[in-house]
Inverse folding.
C-alpha cells in the first residue's frame, strides 16, 4: 500500500506522549502516529451514526410547525399547510421525516417533533398516501367498530360473514 507523508503539528504535551509511546513500542514516532491516526479514523468510520437530529433545530421546528401539524384535519391538509411554510413530510422506514420542500434536505423525524407516524395515522383515520406501512389496525374507523376504510385496493375489502 502506498503511503503519503503529511506534516503534523502537535502541542508539546501531545508530542511528549507520542514520543514516549514510540520509545515504549521501539518504533519510529511517525509510524506510531500513523497507526494511532488510522485506528481512530477506522473507529469513527465504524461507529454507529446517530439518527438523532440537531436538538436546537428540532426545538425551533417544533415551535414553528406544532400548531400547523396539530390543526391539520388529514394528510392533504397537512401536506398543503406544510408546503405553504416550505416543508414536506416523506415516508422513511416505519415513520415519516420532515424535509425542506425546495431542496429535499432531511431535517428531522416527525416523531422528534412530537408527531409520530402511528399517532397521525390514528388521528387522521388513514395511513399517509404512498407510505409503505399502512398501519390499518390504527385507523380510527376500524377502532370504533365502523367498517374499515380502504383506498380502492381489492385486498383492503372484505365482507363480515358472521358478526360477533
Amino acid at each position: 500500500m502506498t503511503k503519503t507523508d503529511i506534516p503534523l503539528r502537535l502541542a508539546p504535551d501531545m508530542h511528549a506522549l507520542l514520543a514516549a509511546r514510540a520509545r515504549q513500542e521501539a518504533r519510529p514516532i511517525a509510524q506510531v502516529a500513523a497507526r494511532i491516526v488510522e485506528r481512530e479514523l477506522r473507529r469513527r468510520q465504524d461507529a454507529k451514526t446517530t439518527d438523532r437530529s440537531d436538538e436546537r433545530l428540532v426545538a425551533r421546528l417544533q415551535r414553528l410547525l406544532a400548531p400547523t401539524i396539530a390543526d391539520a384535519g388529514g394528510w392533504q391538509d397537512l401536506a398543503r399547510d406544510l408546503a405553504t411554510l416550505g416543508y414536506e413530510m416523506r415516508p422513511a422506514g416505519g415513520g415519516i421525516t420532515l424535509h425542506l420542500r425546495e431542496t429535499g434536505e432531511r431535517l428531522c423525524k416527525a416523531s422528534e417533533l412530537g408527531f409520530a407516524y402511528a399517532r397521525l395515522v390514528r388521528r387522521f383515520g388513514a395511513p399517509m398516501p404512498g407510505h409503505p406501512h399502512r398501519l390499518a389496525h390504527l385507523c380510527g374507523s376500524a377502532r370504533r367498530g365502523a367498517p374499515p376504510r380502504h383506498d380502492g385496493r381489492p385486498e383492503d375489502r372484505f365482507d363480515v360473514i358472521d358478526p360477533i
